[in-house]
Amino acid sequence: MNDRYQSPLSERYASKEMQYIFSPDKKFKTWRKLWIALAETEKELGLDITQEQIDELKAHAEDINYDVAKEREKLVRHDVMSHVYAYGVQCPKAKGIIHLGATSCYVGDNTDIIIMTEALKLVRVKLLNVINELSKFAMKYKDLPTLGFTHFQPAQPTTVGKRASLWLMDLVYDLEDLDHVIANMRLLGSKGTTGTQASFLELFEGNHETIKKIDGMIAKKMGFDKCQPVSGQTYSRKVDSRVINVLSQIAQSAHKFSNDIRLLQHLKEVEEPFEKNQIGSSAMAYKRNPMRSERIASLANYVMSDAMNPALVASTQWFERTLDDSANKRLSVPEGFLAIDGILDLYLNVVDGLVVYPKVIESRLRSELPFMATENIMMDAVKAGGDRQELHEKIRVHSMAAGKVVKEEGKANDLLERIAADPAFGMNMEQLQAIMKPENFVGRAPQQTEEFVNEVINPILEENKEKEKRAYEVCLQKIEKHKLDMNLTEVEYAFDGSKILFYFTADGRVDFRELVKDLASTFHTRIELRQIGVRDEAKMLGGLGVCGRPFCCSTFLNDFHSVSIKMAKEQGLSLSPSKISGTCGRLMCCLKYEQNSYEYLAKITPRRGTVVDCREGRGTVVDAALLTGKLKVQLDNAPEGAPVIVNREEVRVVRAPRRGGKNEKKADKPAQAEK
Question: Is the distance from CB of 73 to CB of 88 less than 8 angstroms?
Fold first, then answer.
């Protein structure tokens, strides 16, 4: 297969689930289901069709003889009649009633509608997954102030969560349109050559009332509640246009999100996830390029442009049927779905692993905040007796001067210093700094985010949460029934109901095979039980650590890493496990998170026993504080005096001590890492 073109949509981007929906197996099995539905309907309405014939058709509904169909198509040059023939070879008793009264579009167009409907439902599941994950991110960062932008120029502050709510709102619009399209998907039914059902009028001897029942009966058998009320030979190609347009809208939302993430990653405020061994650039090894967001944008461009295809087809169809739609439909519809499938998988992956850098966000915000706060400063100065117009002009002049310092001289924003030095304002730096609290400038952003998630998003997701709650309660009962030594932690119920995932903790291995069978018979869906560790449990459930802050593992740490007592020792902490363990009972994750910083500081900080030169003279380091960089140096010219305290930047190392020397603490024994 390496000697012919392969679509990257199937090779790289789309999921197996979406690929199957547009596979030959799905297509031709659906054809056969439609032929069975037609035969059953015709039998029920009085035609001379036997149950034996229908049973024969059902017996071969899944085992498609592709080789026979392909050989036949070489001869007759017609795909539908080739498969009618192939089906007849397998079903000799029923071959005479296969496709009775129908046209090619009976199987072709109805299958297209069925496949598009299933694909739309899969898109809906994935869209809900993104909405669910993005809502968690929005709530997590609803209070974190960040610089807002208009025209990509610094503007009034907002919060990280509020910005995420804007991405969410776009997806809500998409979900509303998607639900509308799904709700209005109609089968073609069996309309005949030009949509008049003339062949059925002949079959049923002119009985109009009987013929009126055909479409509804077929629709019901195929899982639909309605058919096209009128049509030519085909359903209106406006349907394809509606479907691909809703995919285009989702692509637009994803593109907007990806653009914002790419800009934020440039600003080093928010980054998409970056794998441990991922290479950002073939030339510049330090780079962390937003490649997933760029891929979203790339695929989104394709989907948005793809929407033109069904529009052109719908607008140029002649009368009751032309065939110039066929080749276009075979490309535009499947590839639109495959691309949007890849986009939503990428979207979920990026949202699930977004990394936020609060310190960078705060630094940028504070550098611009003086400009944002000028109105507040002016109002306070007016309250103190100042003239509003005069102060407005002064602030304008000071702002222009401060902006010039920043832009032309590359120096820090000195607007506050200028205002403090201006007697017209009557305010000192302490008073001005008191105004400079970022949370004072975000308006109702936190409240808006919380209200939006609670009032708009959660009701959308609530149905699934109720299912998860019920599944949790049922599973607890089943665990007790089977007398299993396990603790149920959490339940995840797939939005499409295809799978329920139960997480549990246990001290050892648990034989849960009978439990799985019991749960499967109760919920009639695929059941998975996944044993997790206590650290994973803490990450899922969340809570407050001994420091009073939310668990690191449930907020910003994406992965668990080995932690050891040695890290606590190197960081100058208590070696008592009870004092350096988290709520989960394991050594705190922050030990590993901070270890790199301590190792760096240890490299640049002279150890005990190091001979150094400082302003006061030569001496020996007798103590060192890694975090503050303060050194206690016993001077050679004052051996009995108190050690002097100096900064590590102020000394020059003359001679480092030997490892394990008399002036150095004994080396740490190897400590077993805890996972």
Answer: no
Roughly what angle, to the nearest 10 degrees, separates helices 374-383 and 388-409? 150
Asked if 227 and 215 count as a contact pair (C-beta separation under 8 A), the reply is yes
Question: Taking 70 as the threshold, does the pLDDT of residue 581 lie above it?
Answer: yes
Going by C-alpha positions, the residue among 45, 53, 51, 44 that lies closest to residue 97 is: 53
Amino acid at 543: G
Domain count of the chain? 5
Taking alpha carbons only, the member of 306, 307, 291 closest to residue 346 is 291
The 8-class DSSP code of residue 83 comes to H
Global confidence as pTM: 0.72
Place of tokens 């005949």: 192
The torsion angles phi and psi of 480, rounded to 5 degrees, stand at: -65, -40
Query: What is the Cα 368 distance to its own chain's centre?
Result: 31
Given a contact cutoff of 8 angstroms between Cβ atoms, the answer to whether 439 and 162 are in contact is no
7 is annotated as an active-site residue = no
What confidence tens digit (pLDDT) does each residue in 146-185 have? 999 999 998 889 999 999 999 999 999 999 999 999 999 9
Q: Of 78, 208, 266, 281, which is the active-site residue?
A: 281
Q: Is the same domain home to 270 and 212?
A: yes
Q: What is the mean pLDDT of the segment spanning 338-342? A: 97
What distance in Å separates the CA atoms of residue 547 and residue 560, rounded to the nearest whole number? 19
* 329, 415: one domain: no
Whether the per-residue pLDDT at 9 is higher than 50: the answer is yes
Q: How far apart are the first and last CA of the chain?
A: 44
Task: With cut-offs at 50, 70 and 90, classify the pLDDT of residue 278.
Answer: low
Residue 381 pLDDT > 70: yes
Q: Determine whether 82 is an active site residue.
A: no
Residue with tokens 């929005």: 138
Q: Are residues 593 and 619 in the same domain?
A: no
Whether residue 638 sits in one domain with residue 580: no
Sequence-distant (6+) residues with CB within 8 A of 339 are: 9, 13, 14, 247, 251, 299, 302, 303, 306
pLDDT for residue 426: 86
β-pairing, 526-531 vs 499-505, is parallel
Instruction: Report residue 665's pLDDT band, with 50, 70 and 90 as the boundaries.
Output: very low
Q: Is the pLDDT of residue 673 over 60?
A: no
**pLDDT score for 379:** 83
- Considering the domain architecture, whether residues 118 and 146 belong to the same structural domain is answered as yes
